[in-house]
Each structure stands twice: as structure tokens, then as C-alpha cells.
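Purple acid phosphatase, Tetradesmus obliquus. C-alpha cells?
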Amino acid sequence: MQPKMAWMQTLLLLVCALGISCMRVSASQQETHNPLERIKLYAASHAPESSIVLRLNSTVLEAGHSHQWFELSWSGVQQPSYADWLGLIVPAGADITKTAPAKYQIAAMDKNHVKRGEGRLKFRLINYRSDMQFALFRGGMMAPQLAALSPIIRVQNPNEPLQRHLALTGDNTQMMVQWVTKNSSNPTVKWGTSPGAYNHSAAAVSSTYSRQELCGPPANDAGFVDPGLFHAALVEGLTPGQRYYYVVGDEEWGFSPEASFVAAPPVGPQTRVKVLAVADLGQGEVDGSMEQSEMLVSLNTTARMLQDIQQHDFQLLVHNGDISYARGYVTQWDNFMHQMEPLVSSVPYMTTHGNHERDWPNSGDRFIEAYDSGGECGIPLERRMVMPQAGRDKPWYSFDFGPIHFTQYSTEHPFHPGSEQHAWLLADLAAVDRSVTPWVIVGGHRPIYIASTFNMPDQGDQPVAIALRAAFEEAFVEHRVDLTLHGHHHSYQRTCPVNDNRCQDTPQQEPAPSHSSSSSSWHDARSFSSRRRQGGPPRVIHDAPAPVHLVIGHAGADLSLNVDLNPPDIWEVIKLWWGYLRIEASATELKCEVVSDMDSSLMDAFVLTKPQGWGAAQMQQRSAKQQQQQQQQRHAGEGVPGGVQAGDVRVAEQ
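C-alpha cells:
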């Protein structure tokens, strides 16, 4: 664990243990999320100092490496200061008044800097598809002065296939394989059922985005560098549940190392599946860069999830908004995808838009004056991660995975009754065949229920939750949605099965089947459990008549401290710590474990159950209800009072 992370976690433990009510540090109110936003480039200037020399242990980023460590040393700094810092310039030679560095470290991280004006630091660099170099800046972040430049680091293969990730298409005989290069012209995926034997291939479709397409700064200004080409190739003819081995790239520039994935499982109640879910993850730097970054914890979360994928056969990762927190900086998308590639090159990665991907004034989102995307307005996410969505800037879609139907929607786009998204979501739920997928999980970003004190009009947690309930709650109950997964508030929260702010089940607790890990007492200091849940065994909920709502925005971003300390009785668990959700589903059980990013201990565990044959019975009930409604409509059209049989009318007339 990073020292800063340990200090931050200890502080939060003390804050929460003492019950201190703090101002929220959240997506909606914090001035910045990305450390690069703190650098005031408009005040930057060139002030070269000939005495300063920067040296590198290597000047080549070699091909075939996912990353490479470089040691940067410097000397000759006159009157060294704690405000001096070292930044990575991408591309090399970029105008430092117009292009933000990709990363930085404070020079005083080496104590010799302040003592003698010299030092050395290690940086882990990834392939940004262009040459790069370091610069030593003086004057701090508010008025940086470029004092010296390092030799240029040459990138050996700018078209190395990078950032591999997978996505489902809605057809479990397909997989969308995606990656990025600088400008390769013949991108291809090759695959087969044995390592090294690629019997099939498919050409990719390529796209990118330009500065002019973006909505505002920093995305179309200091944060923009060439994002490269995004390639998406459709792998078809897969056998559900079969493992496939693949490489991506082209003949001219070479192919990636081999990776593998398991094709989506057969759809139906006979299949068991294991799913991971997060929201509000972000990114962290392993080399100590970005000292002010608030998302170092994301490194723990991604490492734990990778273990689950590799050692416990989890098959899918769902990420419901606030993906990278790049907020307009292309290099931060590169950093995030490098962090995620080990996971999402082996399991499909399904995303939804959050405020930090989509929101910008007058760009089509539902908020009046939200600048949270840093000018991206959804374009980078949509181009980088191809989802089976309804169309351009219509990021809502659904897919079946084993016994689960996932409905993914956007809380950032209009969702009111009468909107296109509202009509789509209601139609999607109405069309689910519960005899095939007995479980329905709905996912978005901003929560439909939330124990938060943030009530600001338009963007506040509670006003948005009220609007979501007005739009969807009746349909969620009518169509027997089992679980909703949202984020935005950086906490973990769980309701009872709830409708109209009232629990719809009995409050007794029952023992659950054994789980892979047990609760740890150190979580208790960060718990705000409601009066309905005061410890005891994991919750078992039988055939719930209304959804259980989860807030899972605790994957990596700074925690939201504006929790309602006296929440309504619908709240069974509220915890302030980082972690993620595991789901294991069969025809009759949906087991959920929320695990800590620190040690994988349980923060919460509950099980939803259904009787055998529930899905078929549900479809029979739906069919009978539809027949009754059709009969009533026919009678209404014939002028016959509803509920009165035609034969009865004839008797009355005789």
C-alpha cells in the first residue's frame, strides 16, 4: 500500500469512527478531480537555466513492453525549492503553455534536491504513441517556469497494439475486441481455440476523435493530444463457454502478446455466472507521480478484481459510470486503460456514462450547467469503448448473461416520461422473458435511492433520485426488477426491497449460505447501519416484491462524507470504505458480496432467492394479465363496461 494511501485511510477511519459530519468531497462539488487540472498553463513560461542538467538512464521506450521504468537524474539547480517539479512532456517538444504534461513528480521527493539542487527519481512510462521528454519546472503549479529539458525518449513502436479490451454485443456467439494504435492501416484480430493456433481472423473498424469534436476545455485545449486510432473487430462464431486465444495488430507493425477469453456463457437459468461490478473507479500511478491524486485506492481495487478473474473465474466486469476521471486529458485515458488492460483483455467490460464522462453545458445532457466531463461530453468514452447501444450519444442498452438480464441506462441523458430513453427502458423491461433470465439487474450512474445530505437543485443527489423514482420506480416494481446498481456517491449503501420509500419485505434476518470470506471488525468504524440492521448474519431475501438498491460508488475515488447519519429505515447497510461488488447467480439464487479493496474481507453479504420455476410462473402471470388487458380493451372499444362479460350483456337485454 502507498504511504499516502495508508495515511488517508487512517484519517478517514478516525473521522468516521468519531461520527464527524464533514463537507462532501464529491463529483458534484469538488473543484478538481484530476491533478493535472491544478497546473495553470496559461501562466506558464520559458525561463531556461543553463546550469541545470537532466539525464536519463535510457532514451528508448522499447517495443513489446507494456511499460518501462526510467530513472531521471538532475543537477545544477540554483536556490532549489519545494515548489520545483518534474513533468513528462507528451509529445516531445510540445508547447508547455498549450499542452499539459502527462504526469509529474515533486523534485523534493528526493531530499537531496532541496539540500544540494540535485536528485534522482524513477518514473514508469507507458507508450503514448509519440516521443516524449522530461522538463524541470520552477515556480510551482500556479506559475510554472520551464527551466530545463531532458534528452528525448524515442518510442520504438508507436503502432504497438495497446489497451486491449473486450465487450459483449448482445449475441453470446460474438465478442467485440478493441485496442488502440497510432495510425496503423490494417488492424486485425486473429483467434483460435488453442494457444498460438489462430485459425480465424477479422478486420477491425477504426475511429478516433478530433479536438474540434469536443465540447470545451481542457478536452479541446490543454488536455488534447493525438488519441490515436481506436480499433474494434467483431469475433464471431463462438461457442458459448469456450476459451479462445487471440492477438491483435497488423503485419507491418506486429501483433500483441497472446491473450485469451471465455466466450459468454449460454443464456438461461441452467447457467451459473460470476460477475464483478464497480462505479467511480478512476486511476492511480504506481511510481509516486500525481502526488495530489485522490484515486490511488483504485490500484488496490483493480488488483483485487484481477485476482478474482484469474483465480476465481469471474467472467464479466460492469462499470457504471465515472470511468477514468480523465476529465479532458487524453493521456489520462491512456493511463487508465493501461491499468485496466490485464482485467479487460480477458473478460468483457461493459460501461455506462457518468457525469465525469458526459456532462457539459448545452451538449445534450439533462443538467443545466454541469462541467464535470472537462469538455469531453461523452465522445472519448463512446469512441474508446464500443457498447451495443441504441445509437450515437444514446448510451443505453441491454444484454443477457447466463440467468441475468442486464439493463444499462444513462442518468446523464434525459430520462423523463416521454423521452426516447424512458420509452426504450420500459419496453426493454417489458420484453424480458423471465423463464430464460429469472434475474433482472438495472445499472446506471446516479442513484435512485441515496442516503446523502446533498440537496442542491438540478444536480443534487436527492433531486436526481426523486426524478429517477418518478420516471422508473413503478416500472421497476411492475416488472420485478431484482437489483439496481448505481454509483456517483462515493460510498457503499444497500436498501431493503423498497417501493415508494417503504420496505416491502419482513425485517427478520436469516442465515445465508456460507461465503468465501468473513466480515472484519475494522469495517465497523466506517458503518452507518440503519435501525433495521444491527449486525447479525448475512441477509437472505426471499422472492422480493421490489428491487434492492445498491450504491457502489466506492471503487477508487475519494469517499463522500456527506452521508445522512440518521438515514430512513429503508437503509440496511451504509459504509464508507473502498471496495467492489461480486455477484454469483443461478436460477434460484443471486449471491452478492461487497469486499474491501484492502484485504478482500466482507463489507456486506446478502442473497436474493426465488423458488424453482419462478420464471415460468412469472411469464404465465404476465400472459394472463396481458390477455385480461386485451379483453378489457376490446370491451371498451365495443362500448361494453369493463369487467362485464358479453354474454351477461345479452342476458340483460333480453
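The chain has three domains: 43-155, 273-609, 614-653.
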